[in-house]
Amino acid sequence: xxxxxxxxxxxxxxxxHAALRSALExxxxxxxxxxxxxxxxxxxxxxxxxxxxxxxxIKAPVEMGGDPKEPEDAVMRDAVRGGExxxxxxxxxxxxxxxxxxxxxxxxxGVPFGKKPDGTYRxxxxxxxxxxxxFGLQKGPDSIFDCLMKELKGLGVDIFPQVMxxxxxxxxxxxxxxxxxxxxxxxxxxxxxxxxxLGTGGMTGLFKHTSAYNxxxxxxxxxxxxxxxxxxxxxxxxxxxxxxxxxxxxxMGATMPMTAxxxxxxxxxxxxxxxxxxxxxxxxxxxxxxxxxNYKERRDxxxxxxxxxxxxxxxxxxxxxxxxxxxxxxxxxxxxxxxxVSIRTSPGGALIDEKxxxxxxxxxxxxxxxxxxxxxxAGGRTGGFTSAHVFGCRAGLHAAQEARGQATVALDQGQxxxxxxxxxxxxxSGGCDPFGAxxxxxxxxxxxxxxxxxxxxxxxxxxxxxxxxxxxxFRMTAExxxxxxxxxxxxxxxxxxxMVARSALMRTESxxxxxxxxxxxxxxxxWLKWIxxxxxxxxxxxxxxxxxxxxxxxxxxxxx
Length: 560
Known about the structure:
It is a single chain. By secondary structure, the protein is α/β, with parallel strands linked by helices. It has a domain at 241-343: Flavocytochrome C3, Chain A, domain 1, CATH 3.90.700.10. It has 15 helices and 20 strands. The chain has helices at residues 17-28, 74-82, 89-109, 142-154, 219-226, 252-260, 274-277, 289-299, 319-326, 384-404, 413-425, 434-448, 455-466, 481-506, 524-527; strands at residues 4-13, 33-36, 54-55, 123-124, 134-136, 158-160, 163-171, 174-182, 188-198, 231-232, 238-243, 264-266, 305-308, 337-345, 349-350, 363-365, 452-453, 515-516, 529-535, 541-547. The strands form 5 sheets. Strands 1, 2, 6, 7, 8, 9 and 16 form a 7-stranded mixed beta sheet that branches. The protein has a 4-stranded antiparallel beta sheet with strand order 15-10-19-20. It has a 4-stranded antiparallel beta sheet with strand order 11-14-13-12. Helix 1 links the parallel strand 1 and strand 2 (33-36). Helix 1 runs parallel beside helix 10 (384-404) and helix 3 (89-109) crosses helix 10.
């Protein structure tokens, strides 16, 4: 059967914050917009269903509940200090300047945020922040998605749910569209677009434990890399903490208001562990230190680690009910909640510029697909929701402007036929179960790519992931359509795992979320650099480094 062909001006891939905000801005520019999501837009995001959530890491005006003592540059200083100077400060300036405008956009759309009796917003202080900056959502991230989806439908955006984009189609060095697989009917689709935006999340499905409600399978990274885009800092994985008794809907983002309110991290010996890792800021230390401390306490024989809520004066509204819903066997105010290290965000991703353009013509990226635009560095605190909206808005605006002046590019039918052949190859008999292959991939990543790493484990990971596609053992066979989709996802995860492993092996230092036990110190003299990955002309993965342009930035290490 011939693929169905769909033509549009701007193609948006994804269904979370970055994708929906991109589609909204593009549609407001009066161009034809098509949104394609592997699940149900607004409900397939890694944030959907999360019990917490705040729109934050932005300086709140005093009249909106902000602290009048907060300096203008405090947001950037906190982010860069926490990101250990690996941040893209140029894009960070955009984040700081436009974050509050994107918050006001959501208020105008009707998103409910918590308010005090005097009418100002409830603004909370999160980890790694020197002042309160988080606007708490009354009903979680789904309230944002509902308002955005209502607006998109009103603007006439064409929406294709349950369609997995498996490859970006290029012509003469430009992205001209994408190939997709309908997960419901198995039909192949070809999307022809003048500009394309990636907003399909990060790599939360790469590890065994994730705080994401809907784990992302590295689709954005595989698509961008396959199209020839440069990837930046893929070794930086945003680890988090989740309750051990399967409370995957209560991420560390949801525990932030608890630690801000006095909750503590306690080990098996009853010690307040953050006194060992950051005695000054304790539970408000930089975000990467929490999973690091948890992992190290367990490894050193002092685990497990618990979240002790008994120290809180006033429990955050709604949080106790959420915890009891997912962990009904304990009373969180009387009993400690055991926590485990998980994956949450992706500070590494496709390199973008101030217009959210990747290094490939016609391709834009926002959210985790762009590594939150590089604003987090090695783990600094910048609101993921905020970043997705700031750069999603920019991606939609500039993609629409480009589409208006761009003629439709004819698709390369050889690429279309090649992708059909690749997908059909998974239907052959004699291979392994893709669901079993996924479990092995996640186990291998968790064993070798976790927050504390070493050369031996990283070399094992490089060998495993780089040889995955050619491995006889992992030659996957799809028994049905669900198995076919899973096989395609596992292939993306393996490619992402290889990027993480190779980049982590190359960075011989410890910085933020990337901790090498064989190189425990931060090395600004040799590693104040971004690691770049790009698909070479020979089809192999090529790694290079690019010095962080610190001399162009206002914030520099003390010893620079």
